[in-house]
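seq as requested:
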Amino acid sequence: MENKPLPKKVLFICTHNSDRSHMAEGFMNALYTDRYTAFSAGTEPSNVSPYAVRIIQEIGIDISDHRSKSVRSYFRNLLRQKLDELAKKTGGARMNRDIKGMKFLDLVDWATAEQEREIGLRIIERDTALRGEVMLALEKIKDGTYGFCDSCGQEIESGCLDAMPVTSLCIECKRREEARLKRTGS
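struct tokens:
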């Protein structure tokens, strides 16, 4: 069975999310469905222009069902999807079994089982921490501070947020933090 790569996500952003961004989203989704999934959003969303709908219909692409969306709502949906994925991933079987009560034929079997249990626990720990970061990002969306660097207050580029929606530092502040951690060995 061949593993087909997941389509890359593309976000088109404009001020009002009324014309060009919807047309670009329509083009991308119509022409490159196998490679990309496009979205559009605006910093000050209004209504989708009927002219944009008509113009793009002339070449056979229908965007009549598109609605203007805010950049915030795009990231809110992205974060909620991540939360759902984490719930499915960690909500199932937990790696809390005690292998001490299990019988193993030899030491290698016991060591393998212990290693698998440890890896499972680390994954759950990492996912739990990520869940906390997602919840914090959703709170920031609610209070209007999402997308701004916790350190310098500058706006974080949407490309960074799209790649890592839970990020709380701009690129420059993240570089400084990583350099500091490298120097201190933390």
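The beta strands are 8-14, 36-42.
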